[in-house]
Amino acid sequence: MNVPLLDLVAQYHTIKEDVLRAMNAVMDRQGFIMGPEVAQLEAEVARLSNARHAIGCASGTDALLLPLRALDLEPGDEVITTPFTFFATAGAIHNAGGKPVFVDIEPATFNIAPAAIQAAVTPRTRGIVAVHLFGQMAAMEAILPIAARHGLGLIEDAAQAIGARRKVDGQWRRAGELGTVGTFSFFPSKNLGGFGDGGMMVTQNDQVAERLRRLRLHGGARQYHHEEVGYNSRLDTLQAAVLLAKLPHLEEWSRARAERARQYTEAFTGHADVCPPAIDPANHHIFHQYTIRVPRRNELQAHLKAKGIGNAIYYPLPLHLQPCFAHLGYQRGRLPASEAAMDTVISLPIYPELTRDQQDAVIDAVLGFYA
Ligand SMILES: Cc1ncc(COP(=O)(O)O)c(C=O)c1O
Fold this sequence. Notes:
The protein has 371 residues and is α/β, with parallel strands linked by helices. It contains twelve helices and twelve strands.
């Protein structure tokens, strides 16, 4: 049985009419730039994230770049982050004029280790980018006090975690709610994906929101007047229309993902070779990815491929070992938990439309390899 890693066509069939109606409304109006759908989606995402402000932008990458630009980094200023993430997290730090400082992850959750952040703070540190990887939040209760103690900007890269929650000091908090800025990606494969690129930033801070709104429009709050040099980074109205049509399904989709994760974990638990992902008990995980750790990972990958089972390695080379960051001087062995993850992880198909038969085929293929 062929099981794709993700089946967006299956999802589209379930919502096609609503999406087309929403897109047609924009096309009938021929109003493609900053139409009312953008503000509507911003209001919805602000509500979803318990945030005062939400500001749409052109991608999840720009959603990181703009708040990093708002830190006004000087050459040599440092921003601490995880190397076990999508490239954009650190690329944005570099492009905002900062120096990425990579610290290791907690092996169980793949998320940045707060103690490692604290150990890496120097007089040049200006910010932290914490990533909520694969759909579960980093340990915000431990990261927030570090940021507060040293006066650092704290950006939550929630590209993979829209709607995720974490119990912080006894209260459920949403991804993006607690940092200086939280960022989302609407890349098509995300839990809430558009029909192209898109992103959003959320913040509780009025001044930060104003700055971000300015930066996304060439640095000028008023047309043709520019306080600083910014970007053309608007969220397309058509994308906002698509996302508004999809948003009412997000919670049910994330629940369906979590249910499929539970079924995988039930099948893999106790197996000598297959280590299912850990859910931190403080987290409500939205399972953007279901990532196991295994021995002989590359052989398993070839086996799955031969059987028509989609899979992916997120991530095959941590960012501290990327050629473009060689000048930062990291060697292999420096961040052992991230490096161990890169050699052992493999992500399996997980999406709301994944059928029980498809999932059984994935489970049989994985367990069959180790039998
Ligand atoms: C953790 C993380 N950060 C940032 C991004 C960048 O988002 P985009 O592709 O929308 O630019 C992504 C996804 O692509 C991501 O997974």
